[in-house]
C-alpha cells in the first residue's frame, strides 16, 4: 500500500485494487439413521420425509417465528448432538480435552472473532443487529459435530475413495464444493452451503485450492475444514462423482433396493447452483443416504433454502429478522490474523477518527459510462445528505475585499478554527480503477464544503483488472471489511463484492443506477436497497418437485412473504427481505 498524503482538508490514499476468485464448498446432510433404506415406492419415500421432519412430503409448514419457534431450534440441536454422540461412540479417542483446547486456541487465535463486533458497534449512524443467541448455540453444537467427525475419520482422502461400508463413521456425512468465480461469489456460496450443512448435519470442508483456508480463520473449534486432495474437488465430468441427474433418476424409478445400491459421492449442482430438484423434500430424503456430496456453484442460493418445506420452520426460528447471511459471515467467515492486521492498519491510519464513513464500491462494466457513473455517485451522496454540498473558493480579489470589511462571526471562519471544529466524513472507495476517486477528489479538493464537514477519500488499490492469488484475495477481503465498517454504502448492481460488504456490515445499500432497468429514468442517480441480504441471481421462483404434490403450482412469493423479487435497479432474482434497518 502506498503512503497516503494530506491535501487541503482531504486525505487520499492510492494503491492497487484486487478482487479474487475463491471457491466455496459446503456439506449437507440429514439426521436419519444411516441404516435407513431409500424408499421403493412413493408412499415409503413420503414416510421417510414425514417421520424425519414431522409433516408429509411436500407439505408447506406455516410461516412463523418468535416464541413458537423455539421447538425447531431445540430439535436441530438435539439432532446435531445425536450425530456427535454416534461419531464419538465409535471412537477410542479421548474426548476433546482442556489441554487440546488450549493448544488449538494458540495455533488458531483468530483475533477478529472478538474484535470484529466491537468495530461495528463503533459506527456513529449505522445500527448493528443484536447478537443471535439461538444461532450461537446451534453453531456451537455444529462445531462439536465437525470436530468429532474430522477427528474420527482421520485421513479424508482414504475415506473418500473407499467404497467400504464403514469408511465413514456413524453420524458423519460430508459435502465438498468448488467454484471458479470471484471472492464475493465464493464467500456467498460458502455461506449458503454452510447453512445447508448445519441444517442437515453434514461436515463442511473447504479445499485448499480455493484459497479459502489461507485467507480465513478455521471456524470450527478443534477441527479443520481444509481439504488438500485436489482429486476430491474436481468439478469436471467423470472421476469419482456421480452427476445429480443420474442420482435423482433413482428417485423417479424408485429403484433403490438396499443400502448397498445407494450412491456414495454425488454432485448436486449444474455448475452455477444446485439443481432445482435439490430443493424438494423427496430428493433431500434421498440425498440423506449419500455420505459425500459436492456443491459447485457461483450463486448465492441461501434465500432458496427458506423455501424448502423441511428447512423452513427451523430457519424462521433461527432468524426471525431474516438476517441469516450476516450471522453466517460473522461467525464462520472471519479473516485470518494476517488479513485482520492489515484491516486494523487501514482502519487506524485512515478511518478511525471520523464522525461518518461512506463506502463506495464501483465496477465499470462499460468504459463509455465512466463519467456518468462517477457523477451519479457524487449526486447520490448529495441528495441523500451523505456528503456535503460544495462551493468555489473565493477568488484572490474577492478575498482581499472581504478582508478589508469588518468581519462577523456569521460570515468568517479562519482556517485554524475551521480545522478545530470541522466534523470529518471519510469515503472509502473500492474499485479496480481510480476514476470515482479522482472525480470526488476534484469536487472536494478544489472546492470548499458548505457547513462544518471536512471530507477525506481513501482508495487502497486500482489494479485495472481482476486477478487471482492469496495476496489478491487477502487485499480483496481487507477492502470488503473496510467497506462494511461504513455507516452508508453505495454499491454496483449485481456485484457480489459489494454484496458481501453490505451483509458483513448489516447495511441496506444504495444501488448506483447503471441504466439496466428501463422503468427507472436516467434522472435517478441511485435507489435504496430493500434488504441487507444479497440477491440470488436468477433463482427459481417455483418448485420442480414431482414427488411432492403439495408443492405443485406454488409460487415462492405467495408462500413466503419475506421472499421477494430483487430490485430492478439491481438484477433479476430472489431476495430475502430482512427486517433490520441499518439507519
Describe this structure as you would to a colleague:
With 583 residues, the protein is an alpha/beta fold. It has helices spanning 42-53, 70-89, 98-107, 112-121, 133-153, 156-161, 183-200, 212-215, 244-253, 281-287, 302-305, 312-318, 324-332, 337-351, 370-383, 396-404, 415-421, 435-445, 470-484, 496-505, 556-559, and strands at residues 5-7, 10-12, 174-177, 203-204, 206-207, 226-227, 265-267, 292-295, 356-362, 390-392, 423-431, 447-449, 453-459, 488-491, 510-512, 526-528, 536-537, 563-565, 573-576. The strands form six sheets. It has a six-stranded mixed beta sheet with strand order 13-11-9-14-15-16, with helices on both faces. Strands 4-3-8-7 form a four-stranded parallel beta sheet. α14 (337-351) crosses α19. The longest helix is centred in the N-terminal third of the chain and has 21 residues, at 133-153. It is globular.
Q: How many helical stretches?
A: 21
Largest sheet: 6 strands, mixed
Question: In percent, how helical is the residue content?
Answer: 25-40%
End-to-end separation: 32 Å
The parts where pLDDT drops under 50 for at least 5 residues are: 1-58, 62-69, 255-260, 405-416
Structural class: alpha/beta
Strand count: 19
Morphology call: globular
Strand order in space, largest sheet? 13-11-9-14-15-16
Q: How many distinct domains?
A: 2
Radius of gyration: 26 Å
Mean pLDDT: 82
Q: What portion of residues belong to β-strands?
A: 5-15%
Assembly annotation: single chain
Amino acid at each position: 500500500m502506498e503512503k497516503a498524503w494530506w491535501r487541503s482538508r482531504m486525505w487520499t490514499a492510492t494503491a492497487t485494487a484486487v478482487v479474487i476468485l475463491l471457491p466455496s464448498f459446503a456439506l449437507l446432510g440429514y439426521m436419519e439413521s444411516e441404516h435407513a433404506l431409500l424408499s421403493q415406492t412413493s408412499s415409503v419415500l413420503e414416510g421417510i420425509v414425514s417421520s424425519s421432519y414431522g409433516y408429509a412430503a411436500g407439505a408447506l409448514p406455516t410461516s412463523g417465528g418468535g416464541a413458537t419457534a423455539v421447538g425447531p431450534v431445540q430439535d436441530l440441536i438435539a439432532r446435531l448432538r445425536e450425530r456427535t454422540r454416534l461419531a464419538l461412540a465409535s471412537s477410542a479417542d479421548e474426548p476433546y480435552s482442556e489441554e487440546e483446547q488450549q493448544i488449538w486456541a494458540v495455533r488458531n487465535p483468530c483475533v477478529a472473532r472478538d474484535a470484529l463486533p466491537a468495530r461495528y458497534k463503533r459506527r456513529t449512524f449505522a445500527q448493528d443487529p443484536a447478537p443471535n443467541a439461538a444461532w450461537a448455540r446451534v453453531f456451537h453444537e455444529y462445531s462439536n459435530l465437525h470436530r468429532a467427525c474430522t477427528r474420527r475419520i482421520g485421513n479424508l482422502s482414504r475415506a473418500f475413495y473407499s467404497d467400504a461400508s464403514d469408511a465413514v463413521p456413524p453420524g458423519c456425512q460430508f459435502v465438498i464444493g468448488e467454484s471458479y468465480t470471484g471472492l464475493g461469489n465464493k464467500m456467498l456460496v460458502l455461506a449458503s452451503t454452510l447453512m445447508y450443512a448445519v441444517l442437515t448435519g453434514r461436515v463442511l470442508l473447504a479445499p485448499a485450492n480455493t484459497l479459502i483456508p489461507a485467507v480465513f480463520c478455521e471456524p470450527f473449534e478443534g477441527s479443520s475444514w481444509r481439504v488438500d486432495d485436489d482429486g476430491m474437488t474436481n468439478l469436471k465430468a467423470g472421476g469419482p462423482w456421480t452427476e445429480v441427474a443420474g442420482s435423482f433418476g433413482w428417485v423417479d424409478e424408485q429403484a433403490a433396493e438396499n443400502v448397498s445400491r445407494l450412491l456414495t459421492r454425488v454432485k448436486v449442482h449444474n455448475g452455477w447452483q444446485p439443481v432445482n430438484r435439490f430443493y424438494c423434500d423427496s430428493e433431500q430424503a434421498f440425498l440423506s443416504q449419500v455420505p459425500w456430496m459436492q456443491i459447485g456453484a457461483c450463486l448465492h442460493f441461501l434465500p432458496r433454502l427458506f423455501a424448502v418445506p423441511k428447512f423452513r420452520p427451523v430457519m424462521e426460528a433461527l432468524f426471525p429478522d431474516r438476517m441469516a447471511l450476516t450471522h453466517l459471515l460473522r461467525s464462520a467467515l472471519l479473516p485470518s490474523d494476517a488479513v485482520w492486521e492489515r484491516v486494523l492498519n487501514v482502519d487506524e491510519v485512515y478511518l478511525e477518527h471520523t464522525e461518518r464513513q461512506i463506502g463506495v464500491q464501483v465496477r465499470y462494466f462499460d468504459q463509455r459510462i465512466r463519467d456518468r457513473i462517477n457523477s451519479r455517485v457524487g449526486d447520490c451522496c448529495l441528495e441523500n445528505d451523505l456528503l456535503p454540498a460544495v462551493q468555489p473558493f473565493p477568488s484572490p480579489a474577492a478575498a482581499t475585499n472581504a478582508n478589508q470589511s469588518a468581519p462577523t462571526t456569521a460570515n468568517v471562519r479562519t482556517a485554524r478554527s475551521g480545522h478545530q471544529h470541522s466534523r470529518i466524513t471519510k469515503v472509502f472507495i473500492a474499485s479496480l480503477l481510480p476514476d470515482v476517486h479522482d472525480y470526488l477528489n476534484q469536487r472536494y479538493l478544489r472546492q470548499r464544503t458548505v457547513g462544518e464537514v471536512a471530507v477525506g477519500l481513501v482508495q487502497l488499490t486500482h489494479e485495472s483488472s481482476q486477478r487471482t492469488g492469496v495476496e489478491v484475495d487477502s487485499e480483496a477481503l481487507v477492502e470488503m471489511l473496510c467497506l462494511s465498517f461504513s455507516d452508508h454504502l453505495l454499491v454496483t448492481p449485481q456485484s457480489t463484492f459489494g454484496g458481501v460488504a453490505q451483509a458483513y456490515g448489516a447495511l441496506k445499500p444504495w444501488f448506483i443506477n447503471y441504466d439496466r432497468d428501463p422503468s427507472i429514468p436516467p434522472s435517478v442517480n441511485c435507489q435504496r436497497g430493500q434488504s441487507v441480504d444479497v440477491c440470488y441471481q436468477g433463482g427459481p421462483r417455483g418448485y420442480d418437485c414431482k414427488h411432492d404434490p403439495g408443492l405443485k403450482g406454488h409460487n415462492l412469493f405467495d408462500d413466503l412473504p419475506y421472499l421477494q423479487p430483487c430490485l430492478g435497479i439491481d438484477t433479476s432474482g430472489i431476495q430475502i427481505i430482512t427486517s433490520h434497518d441499518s439507519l
